[in-house]
Every structure is written in C-alpha cells, then in structure tokens.
Amino acid sequence: MMIPIPIPIPIPNPIISLAQLQQIHGHLLSSGLFHFYPSRSKFLDSCAASALPYAAAIFSRIPLPLTNDWNAIIRGHAQSHHPINALVTFLAMLRRASCRPDALTCSFFLKACARALAVTEAFQMHARVLKSGFQADVLLQTTLLDAQAKCGELDNALKLFYEMSRKDIASWNALISGLAQGNRPFEALELFKEMGHGCGMMPNDVTVLGALSACSQLGAVREGDGVYEYIRNNGLDENVIVCNAVIDMYAKCGLVDKACSVFEGMKCRRSVITWNTMIMGFAMDGDGVRALQIFNCMDGGRLGGPMPDDVTYLAALCACNHAGMVEEGLRVFRLMDKHGVRKNVKHYGSVVDLLGRAGRLDEAYEIIVCMPVFPDVVLWQTLLGASKTHGNVGMAENASRNLVEMGSSTCGDFVLLSNVYAAQKRWNDVGKVRGAMMSRDVKKIPGFSYMEVNGAIFKFFNGDKGHPNWRQIYWKLEEISIQIREFGYAPQTNFVLHDIGDEEKANALCYHSEKLAVAFGLISTDEGTSINIYKNLRICGDCHVVIKLISKLYGRKIIVRDRTRFHRFEEGSCSCKDYW
Fold it and tell me: Which domain-ending residue is among 385, 420, 444?
C-alpha cells in the first residue's frame, strides 16, 4: 500500500498579521505538514519576513533543522533592523552537523554583511565561496560584489567584477552605486559609460541613480544632461525617486532653474522628498525667497502638497541662513511648534547658525545652553565659526573649551580658533593651537577643487603642479595678480596662520586650489564662457575677493560650489552678497 505524500499548502506572502501566522502554524501542526520539509521551510520563510521573533521561536524548537530552515531564519535576520544576528545564526549553523550551507545561505549571509558593514566577515565568506565551488553562481557573485562595494572594499569589488564570467544588471548597479557612494565618482561615471557602449546591458532606475549621484559630486553637467536624456527616452521619469535624483543633481550642479523645470514638469506625483529637494536646491543657491515660496506652497498640506516634515523645515531654515533672512528663519522655527513637528539638534543648530552669521552671538549662545536636547559638537563648531567671522575672541574660546571637553579633535576646530587669534595677531596663541594639533596628531584636510572642461573632469590641490599645463596656469595667476593689484587688491593675509612676512603670506594664498581652477578655466575655455568649480572645503575670504575681481576684469561668470552653498561671481560681485 502506497503512503500518500502530503501536498504542501500555499503560504500567503506577505503575511498580514500574527494571528494569521498562528492559524497557519496550528494547521501545519495538526495536519502533520509541519514535519514535511518543504511546507515547514516555506512557512518559516514567510514567517521570518513578517514576524521574525515568532519565526525564531518556532525554529528553536525544531530538533534537526535542515538547510532551508536555517536559510529562512538567516534571511529574516539579514533583512531586519539587526542584520548582525544573521552572522551569529550562520555561525550556529556551522556548529551543527545535520546540514551544510548552500549558495543561498552564503548569499543571505553576504547581504547581512553589506547591511552591517561587516568587512572581515565578507572576506571570510569570499574564501568559503571559493573553497565550496559556489563562485559559478552569478547571483552569489553579485551579492558578494555588492557586499564588498558597500563595505568600502571597492578595489576588491572591481577585481571581482572583471573576473566574473557573465555580468548581470545587478552587478553593474552594485559597482556603480558603490563607487559613487565611496567618493570615487570618476570611476562610477566611466563604468556607466562602459555599460552603455555595446555591453548589451540597458541601465535601469538603480543604475541611473548611481550615475546621477556621481554627476552631483563632480558637478558634471554634460554627463548629467546625458543621463537625464536617457531617463526621458526610456520612461524612467515616471519614477519619483529618479525624478528626485535628477532635481538634486541639477541643483548641486548649480542649475537650480533647470532643477525647478524638472520639478514643475514631473509626470509622477511629487513626494515630500521632492519638495524637500527643491527647497534645499534653492537654499544652496542662496535664493531664500524662492525657497520659502516653495515651502509656503506646501501650506501644511492644504494646497495639494504633502505635509512638511522635519527635513522640510530644516531645508527652509538653511535657505534663510544662506540668504541672511533672520526674522523669516525664526518664523519658520516657531512654525514647527504650531504644526507639531518635533525639533531635533539639527534645527537648533540651524538657528544657532542663523543668529551667529548675523552677529547675534549672545542669542545663539543662549539657544545652545537652553535647548531641551543635548548640544552636539556641530553646534559648538557653528558658534566657533560665527565667533571667528565676527572676531569675538571670548566667545571663540568658550566654544573651543566645550569642544575640547566633548573630545572633538577635528582639524577645522583648531583652524578656526587659530584664525581668530591670527586675525588679532596673537601669534603666541596661534603657536599654542598648532602645538595642540601636533600633540593630538590632527592633520588639516587638504583643499581641492574640481572642474569640467569639454567633458573632462580636472582636479586641483593647493599648490598643485601635477597638471600637464601647470606652467601656463601659474603664468596666468601671475597675470591675474598684477591686474587685480591695479584695482586696489591687497592679499587677505589674516587667513594665513603663520607669523611670517606679508610676502610669504601672499604667496601662500596665491595657489589655493580654486584659484588654480579659475586660471585653468580662463586659459582653456572661450571668452564669455562660464567657469564652474566645485570645492571640498569652504571658500576662503581671500579667494572670494580675488574671484570677484576676476569676474569683472575678464568678463566671466564664475560659479563656485563649496561644501555649504553656491557662490555666483559676476561683474565684480557675488550672489552671496558677502554673507556666507
């Protein structure tokens, strides 16, 4: 007599409620199907996706769990808020002799590594994959590549990518996104171009998000235009996440009007992130009026826009900051209470910055000491920066003491305090600060600037002589120096922290990265062409003065994006109105 084989019942996915899970579990137990391996594994898989603690409790009562049972729990942990538990479960699996990991086990483990940034464990799994002979599995190879890219091991990810026998779209996406997020935007764009040139792969929404991120970092407008054209031609502009990334890219490339055009012409419904991105775009451009116009159009959700969230208010506050709109910024800050939006440390920091920039240092200090949340390092750094701007030595020393007490050792903190002392010619105090930097092994972040010329990206460091045309660049700087002195320019030597002669100070200022980039732009582009520069640090006061004069002398529009905002230099003035 043949024994009928139990037929697995379908497990709904996703599971709606714990009660439903419990009913299915009861049915599987009463019918005997729970001991039928495929039904049990399918149930555990669905259960782990919806109610992981319940699935883990069931799993712990299985005497001899098999590979797919383990896989269900490892996968559930990998997708949870605590992916490190997937690694712990995997180690427990290795200690059991009843089953062995398969390619899926390795894949779920690697996904957990990617989310937990577990670099060592990802390398150990790579070795296991090679030893087990699973490397032929394309899905597993892609997961391994993704884990290495997200953990910052980009050279290893690149090596693995080019060793793969067959490249799928997921592997391209993992590497392009990893390079863009890992501060290697040049390579991300090169890989994106390679993908579009005869490899048979069509970039999808994930691909273009990585490419747009790279364009944003580099200010690569021409490349960004090409990506956006591909998006429109292939219907990807119906994806709100992609549209948000396009708006962000154009805003960060200094084309805020083009960003606004994309915003206004969207085919899909705008999300709150869309509105936030547009407000922040105007904020970076220093256009507080238009930023608040967009903010007011949301109107608490009554005019068709979504309800403003905490990020919306932060973007509006930043816009007021960069435009010097103090009273408007304080009004926005008070609106948060009216609409029940909880303030966090970033909102308080923005108001401290708003008041500090305006020279209202006592009010800014009062905000810090009276706020209901504990002030972080950034708040004291903000007050220190404002104290430097307005030459308030006492407040600068106060902020610096608090930073030291909090254990901050950022080079910028020391440099700002040094600047305050240097401006007052207190060279002994400058020396003490520099001594403290040396004893703490604090190194100053090198300044550098990017620019795009004829589709190629160029990078300059302070005092750089690595460019093939460096002699012509330096000759152009000499020419600029002579001409601007005729207009009454005097080097802003208070920005140099050494007690040296004025001539040495002037030379130290002359070869900042943004000046090298401007000089290269003048010799390598046609007259009347705009020059666009992207700097990793805040533009220094001397460079700001010099570039204003260059814009007038050479009739050029020069756009500099530093780490906080855009400066548009034209006819001898800047869009920031010398308020930054």
Answer: 444
Residue 405: CB atoms within 10 Å: 9
Which of 402, 425, 444 is a domain's end point? 444
CB 244 within 8 A of CB 272: no
Number of domains the chain contains: 2
- What range defines the domain where residue 393 resides? 343-444
Backbone angles phi, psi at 265, to 5 degrees: -100, 15
Q: At residue 437, does pLDDT exceed 80?
A: no
Same domain as 460, residue 412 = no
SS (H, E, C) 220-268: CHHHHHHHHHHHHHCCHHHCHHHHHHHHHHHHHCCCHHHHHHHHHCCCC
DSSP 563: S
Q: Would you state the pLDDT for residue 520?
A: 96
Element (H, E) at 459: strand 456-461
Question: pTM of the full predicted structure?
Answer: 0.79
Is the pLDDT assigned to residue 13 strictly greater than 60? no
Which of 188, 180, 177, 140 is CA-nearest to residue 160?
140
**Strand 573-574 versus strand 566-570 pairing type:** antiparallel
524 and 568 both lie in a single domain: yes
Token pair of 521 as six digits: 């732009």
Collapsing DSSP to helix, strand or coil, 281 comes out as: helix
CB atoms within 10 A of CB 186: 16
In a domain? residue 426: yes
The pLDDT tens digits for 124-144 are 888 888 887 777 677 888 888
463/437 same-domain check: no
pLDDT digits (tens, 9 = 90+) for 497-519: 444 444 445 556 678 999 999 99
Cα separation, 551 vs 559, whole angstroms: 10
> Residues 6 or more apart from 394 whose CB is under 8 A from it?
none
Asked if 465 and 439 sit in the same domain, the reply is no
Number of alpha helices (DSSP H) and beta strands (DSSP E) in the chain: 29, 6
Q: How many CA atoms lie within 13 A of 559 on its CB side?
A: 20
- Is residue 547 situated within a structural domain? yes
What value, to the nearest 5°, has the Cα angle with vertex 157 and ends 445 and 253?
A: 50
- Among 576, 559, 531, 459, smallest CA distance to 252 is for 559
For 180-206, what is each residue's pLDDT tens digit? 998 899 999 999 988 877 677 889 999
Cross-strand partners of 560:
533, 567
**Distance from C-alpha of 159 to C-alpha of 273, rounded to nearest angstrom:** 36
Name the packing angle between helices 205-218 and 169-181 (round to 10°): 20
Mean pLDDT of 476-502: 71
State whether 419 and 437 are in the same domain. Answer: yes
Classify residue 490: in a domain, yes or no: yes
Q: Does residue 37 carry a pLDDT above 90?
A: no
Residues 540 and 464 both lie in one domain: yes
Q: What is the 3-state secondary structure (H, E, C) of 348-387?
A: HHHHHHHHHHCCCHHHHHHHHHHCCCCCCHHHHHHHHHHH
Residue 325 to residue 71: CA distance in whole angstroms: 56
pLDDT confidence of residue 43 = 78
The structure tokens listed for 497 are: 């922290």
pLDDT at position 508: 61
